[in-house]
Amino acid sequence: MKDHAELAEKFNRDEARVDWHDKTLWFIREKRDKAAWQIPEWEHLRETASQIKNNVLSNLHDYLLQFETKAQQNGITVHWASTPEEHNQIVYSIIQKHGVANIVKSKSMLTEECHLNEYLLKQGIDVVDTDLGERIVQLADEPPSHIVLPCIHWKKEEIGELFHKHLGTPKGNADPKFLTAAAREHLRQRFMTSKVAITGVNFGVAETGEIVVCTNEGNADLGVQLADVHIACMGIEKIIPKRKHLGIFLRLLARSATGQPITTYSSHFSKPHDGQEMHIVLVDNGRSERLGSNDFRNALKCIRCGACMNTCPVYRRSGGHSYHYAIAGPIGAILAPGLDMKEHADLPFASTLCGSCSNVCPVKIDIHDQLFKWRQVLVQNGNTSTTKKIGMKGMNFVLSNPTVYKIAGSAGRWFMKHLPFVVNNKLNPWYKQREMPKPPEQSFGEWFKKNRKSS
Ligand code: SF4
């Protein structure tokens, strides 16, 4: 079983990388703040977006059927998948029908969630991710570590090495402009020859049956325009009721994600172009179940901007891979346990509960409240380690009994003073990366008694 603390410890071994990762993400958080402050109605936008999403969640069934009907009227084939396996099989069957072995894909966290690349590779289909960051992690045989900045944990020198190995660029050249040009040349060939293009979906408009895909590189447009078949993979929560609502979400999304006023490309796909086939695969994968849960349904409002990751002190200093789920950070920590409580029982504890994630969330998801609620659910369901269970029972006994509490306090102070290794050893995770403070001479109770008397 993977564990966030263990994986974070691995990431923390490279202190320089941690510092730089932390600073880079904080820089993006600051850019987001500046972009938000430039809009006087920012809080009003957040509230409106949140209310629209509440409306969507309360009427999801109707909006999805409306979306399906409109999309079909536009000449799009709509598929429904309840599980990742079903999603992957549907995508494969479309590709198979066209006898294609090489396809291009623009960034889609849903396909990461469904492990589509691995599945298609097993069927002999070569998928090339065309977003630069995604291509870098794909060449490195790694999952993305951030939903907007997939290779944020990579240094440019390392990317230079990677490109030298896979794309034949000169050794030692780590110039970002040069590397971007090399990637563009490498990808252009695939764009020109791929008959099938897969995209994700940022928004599906129920009123019109169209989808909107946001990219900064234009790779979704290029892939789709050159392909005979467009397959769009969409989580069922991506619906918004009307086209006029897009203005609200697009303004919030780009500013929250990177501090840009708008994503470079906001591409609308409403029907297949002449001679093209277009498919939309609507995926549930636990979303309906989440919808039925009062405590956790709000997580479905997420528009995947990544702002909660950029601000999270734990994410910034533990890295995206420590979350061992397709979506990292605070939002991943409340989505993952809903899919597999046992496997992801560690994630809601990977938080300080400072609430910064909820403060920046453009659709006002109560992320830190949900993290806290997940902890309670996990404990109630017995999904905590034996040492923690014993520890909590012990603490319960000590804290609910004043005499035992006093004895334990003076014993602890005595041990820390005379035999500090009993507390400060490698078995104590708190001690591993901290310098323990000097033990106080007396407890607060003793100090209070003395000082109250003297005053
Ligand atoms: S939870 Fe909110 S802040 Fe985090 S990715 Fe989703 S929309 Fe953005």
Task: Please provide a brief summary of the model.
The chain has 455 residues and is α/β, with parallel strands linked by helices. The protein has 22 helices and 10 strands.
Relative strand content? 5-15%
Tell me the number of strands: 10
Strand order of the largest sheet: 1-10-7-4-2-3
Q: Number of helical segments? A: 22
How would the global form be characterised?
globular
Q: Could you list the spans in which at least 5 consecutive residues all have pLDDT below 50?
A: none
Q: Main sheet?
A: 6 strands, parallel
Explain what this protein looks like in three dimensions:
The protein is an alpha/beta fold and 455 residues long. It has helices at 4-12, 15-37, 42-58, 60-73, 84-97, 109-113, 116-122, 132-139, 156-167, 176-193, 219-226, 246-258, 287-291, 307-311, 313-318, 329-339, 356-360, 367-380, 386-399, 402-418, 429-432, 444-454; strands at residues 77-81, 102-105, 126-129, 196-199, 203-205, 210-215, 229-235, 239-240, 265-269, 277-283. It has 22 helices and ten strands. It has a six-stranded parallel beta sheet, sandwiched between helices. A four-stranded mixed beta sheet has the order 8-5-6-9. A hairpin with a 4-residue loop joins strand 5 (203-205) and strand 6 (210-215). Helix 2 (15-37) packs antiparallel against helix 12, helix 9 crosses helix 10 (176-193) and helix 16 packs parallel to helix 18. The mean pLDDT is 95. Iron/sulfur cluster binds next to helix 14.
Give the SSE map.
Elements lengths: L3 H9 L2 H23 L4 H17 L1 H14 L3 E5 L2 H14 L4 E4 L3 H5 L2 H7 L3 E4 L2 H8 L16 H12 L8 H18 L2 E4 L3 E3 L4 E6 L3 H8 L2 E7 L3 E2 L5 H13 L6 E5 L7 E7 L3 H5 L15 H5 L1 H6 L10 H11 L16 H5 L6 H14 L5 H14 L2 H17 L10 H4 L11 H11 L1
Iron/sulfur cluster (SF4) binds next to helix 14.
